[in-house]
Design a protein that fits this description.
Elements lengths: L6 E3 L7 E3 L2 E5 L5 E4 L13 E4 L5 E4 L4 E9 L9 E10 L3 E5 L6 H18 L11 H6 L1 E5 L2 H30 L1
C-alpha cells in the first residue's frame, strides 16, 4: 500500500511545500555565525590544526580559535556559497569564512548537507556581486532551512547520506587507481 505524506505550505517561494512534521526556519534561529580573524598567509605547512580558507583545500595552522562542531562556508571568491566543510574539534578559519555553529533544533551534519546542496541556489538568485562573488551575513541569516522536527529522522537522513557519500568516494578512488594503471 502506498503511503501518502501530509504536506504543509511554507509560503516561501523557493521552498514550497514540506512534510507536515517538518520545520522551515531561518538560519538565524538555528545557529550562531562568526567569521575567523586569520588570513591565508597565516597557514603553516604541517601545522597542528586544520585551517579553513576560502577553497575546498583545507590548509594547516598551529593555532585554533574554535573547538567544537561547525559548518564552514566560504564568504567570498569563486567558492562563495559553494565551498562547505563540516568540522569537529579544534580548528582555525579565515576572516572571510563563516563558521555556523551552536546548532539548535537541527543536527549539525544535517545542516551541512542541506546548506551544501541548497545554499548556492540562493546565491544564484540574489548575488551581492561586484567584481567577485560575495556572501553577506544577512543573506545567510535569512536563508530558510527545512528539516524533520524529529532528531531521529534527521539522523537517519544523515546516516544515509554519509553511506552514499562514502560509496561514491570509494568508486572515485577505484577510478583514480584504474586511471594510474
Amino acid at each position: 500500500m502506498k503511503r501518502y505524506i501530509d504536506l504543509k505550505n511554507t509560503e516561501i517561494e523557493l521552498v514550497g511545500q514540506i512534510p507536515a512534521d517538518w520545520s522551515a526556519i531561518k538560519v538565524r534561529f538555528i545557529c550562531d555565525i562568526t567569521t575567523g580573524d586569520k588570513d591565508t598567509i597565516n597557514r603553516i605547512d604541517n601545522g597542528k590544526y586544520p585551517f579553513y580558507v576560502r577553497s575546498p583545500i583545507v590548509e594547516r595552522i598551529d593555532t585554533y580559535s574554535f573547538d567544537g562542531e561547525g559548518v564552514l562556508m566560504a564568504g567570498d571568491g569563486v567558492g562563495a556559497g559553494r565551498v562547505f566543510h563540516y568540522a569537529t574539534g579544534k580548528f582555525d578559519y579565515h576572516q572571510r569564512v563563516y563558521n555556523l555553529h551552536n546548532f539548535r533544533k537541527v543536527i549539525g551534519r544535517y545542516f551541512f548537507y542541506f546548506m551544501q546542496e541548497n545554499f548556492y541556489k540562493e546565491i544564484e538568485r540574489s548575488n551581492a556581486k561586484s567584481t567577485v562573488d560575495s556572501i553577506r551575513l544577512n543573506m545567510i541569516k535569512a536563508f530558510v532551512v527545512t528539516f524533520p522536527v524529529s532528531l531521529n529522522e534527521q539522523k537517519e537522513i544523515v546516516d544515509y547520506l554519509d553511506r552514499r557519500t562514502a560509496d561514491i568516494d570509494g568508486l572515485l578512488a577505484d577510478l583514480a587507481r584504474q586511471a594510474e594503471i
